[in-house]
Structure formats: C-alpha cells, structure tokens
Automatic annotation (TrEMBL):
CDD domains: UDPK_IM_like (cd14265). It is an enzyme of class 2 (transferase). InterPro entries: DAGK, DAGK_sf, UDPK. This is Diacylglycerol kinase family protein. Belongs to the bacterial diacylglycerol kinase family. It is a multi-pass membrane protein. The keyword Manganese does not apply. Keywords: ATP-binding, Cell membrane, Kinase, Lipid biosynthesis, Lipid metabolism, Membrane, Nucleotide-binding, Phospholipid biosynthesis, Phospholipid metabolism, Transferase, Transmembrane, Transmembrane helix. It is found in: Cell membrane. Pfam families: DAGK_prokar. GO terms for molecular function: kinase activity.
Length: 124
C-alpha cells in the first residue's frame, strides 16, 4: 500500500471517530471516563502491567461502542421503520458494550481499590 492510500485510509477512520463522537452521547461519556481513569492512573503510579490492562479495557469499551453505533446506523439506514428483528439486532449490539463496560469496571476496581484503600489508611 502506498503512503497516499494509507493516509486516505487513516483520514476516513478519523472521520468515523469524529462522527461517532459528534452523534453518540455514550461514546463521549466513555471518552470522559477514559480520561478520568488515565489521570487516576498517573496519580496512582500504575505499574506497566496495570497500564496494559487499563488501556486494553479502554480500547475494548471504545471499540464496542463504535461497532454498536455502526450497527445502529446501518439498521436505521436499512430499515428506518420499527421492526422486532431490528430491535433484536440493536439489543445484541448494545449488549457487547455492556459486557465490555462490566468487565472494565471489575478490572478497574481490582487495580484501583487497593490503592484507594492504602491512600485512605495512610490518612488515618
Ligand atoms: N427500528 C427499530 N425497531 C425496533 N426497535 C428499535 C428500533 N430502533 C431502536 N429500537 C430499540 O431502541 C433501542 C435503542 O436504539 P437506538 O438506535 O435509539 O440507540 P441509542 O438510543 O443510540 O442507544 P445506545 O445507548 O445503544 O447507543 C434498541 O436497542 C432497540 O431495543
């Protein structure tokens, strides 16, 4: 692939990210949560392995939200009418975000809870 073609691909991908950011409140909320978690990680001096888990969790949540948004938009385009099959497809797509966010919350708790407890004990 030549450089020009690759740059065009990156620009299309960046357009996709901007579109999801503009149209999806949940994606913006996930970005805010990711920024809060990254700042907390810097403050808590996470280890390399902890950073790896946190960054993988953030990436999986954002990717599932983007894929969910793409499926929602595709279904709205293919069938703008209310339809039980569209509901099933959209609900299944949304469930991927829920699963990703649920396990990200558990991993975040495993990593941050001991540090927060240590910090509180240090204050007492
Ligand atoms: N055309 C449709 N036919 C049947 N049910 C639908 C249809 N469109 C949406 N729904 C139902 O409404 C839910 C929300 O769909 P919508 O496309 O509005 O996504 P959203 O409000 O952006 O939600 P999300 O929080 O997942 O981004 C779907 O999961 C589905 O249960």
């Amino acid at each position: 692939m030549n450089v020009k073609k690759r740059n065009i691909g990156i620009s299309y991908a960046w357009n996709g990210i901007k579109e999801v950011f503009r149209s999806e409140l949940n994606f913006r909320l996930h970005i805010v949560a990711a920024i809060v978690v990254i700042c907390s990680g810097v403050i808590c001096h996470l280890t390399k392995i902890e950073w790896a888990f946190i960054l993988i969790c953030i990436a999986i949540v954002l990717i599932t939200e983007i894929v969910n948004s793409a499926i929602e938009k595709m279904m709205d385009f293919l069938n703008p009418e209310h339809h039980p099959s569209v509901k099933v497809i959209k609900d299944i797509a949304a469930s991927s975000v829920l699963i990703a966010a649920f396990f990200a919350a558990i991993i975040g708790t495993i990593i941050f809870a001991p540090k927060i407890i240590d910090f509180i004990q240090g204050l007492l």
